[in-house]
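Researcher: We're teaching a course module on how sequence relates to structure. For the next exercise, students receive a sequence and then see the predicted structure as C-alpha cells, so they can try to spot secondary structure elements on their own. Here is the exercise chain.
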Amino acid sequence: MADKSQFGEGRFGPAELEPKPDPAPPKKPRGPWMTMAAAAMLAVSKLKFLLIGLKALPFAKVLLTSGTMLLSMAVYAWGMGIPFAVGFVLMILIHELGHGYAMRRHGLAAGAPVFIPFFGALISMKDQPRTPLVEAEVAIAGPVAGAAAAIAACALFFLTHSPLFLALAHAGFFLNLFNLTPFGFLDGGRVVKLFSRKMWIVGAVVLVAMFALTHSPQLLLIGLMSLPSLVGKSGPPPGDDQVTSSERLNMAFHYFGLCGFLAAGMYFSQRLLHPS
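Model: And here is the predicted structure for the students to work with:
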C-alpha cells in the first residue's frame, strides 16, 4: 500500500482525482571539476587582498624570500632529493646575495630575493645605476659570490669525501658560468657593455684556449654570443664616457678570468664525479 504522504489525503481521497504535477527533474550532482573551478575563482578573487595584507606586514620580505625558497626546494627535491635541493637553493641564494651586497655598496636600494623553480632567482634593483661600470660591478658580483660558494662546496667534499658536495660544486660552477653568457637579461649581458672590440678579440683568444682545455659547452656558447661584438661595433650605452680605459680593462680581466676559472672548476669536478 502506498505511503499516505505520497497522495496527501489517502489512497481514495479527493487528492487522487486531481491531476498530479510532473515531478521536478533531478538535480545533476556537481562534478569535482566544477568544485575545483569554484574554489579557484574564489581564491583569485581574494588574492589581491592577500597581497595587500602581505605588503603591510613588517616581515613581508622575509616571508617572500623564505616562502619561494621552500617552494623551490620542494620542486627540486622531487627529482634530485632533499639534500641536493637544499644545497642547490642555498647556492642560488648566495649568488643573489652577491648582487644585493654590491647594490648596497653602491648606495642602490635592493629588493628581496625571489626564487622561481627551474629559472633560478632574482633580486630587483630599485634604483638606476649611475654608470655602466656600476651596473657591471653589480652584475658580476653574483657570479663571484656563486663561485665562492662552489669553492666552499669543493672544500667540504675534500673534508668529508661526500659526493653530494662535489655535485653541488659542479652545479655551482655550471650555473654561474651560464649566467656570464653575454646575453640580454643574464649577468654577462650587463657586464660586456663595457668591452670594446679589441677587448673582445683578446677575450676570444682566452675563451678558445680554455675551451681547448676543458671542452666546456658554456664557453662555446659565450663565444658564439660574442660574435656580433667581434665583427661589428654597437653604439656606446648611456654614461659610457664616465668609464675610464683602466676600468674597462680591469672589468674585462675579471670577466674572462672568472669564465676561465668556472670552466676549469666544471671540468675538474666532472672528472672527479665520473672518473674515466
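Model: If you want an answer key for the exercise: The longest strand covers residues 114-116. The radius of gyration is 31 Å.
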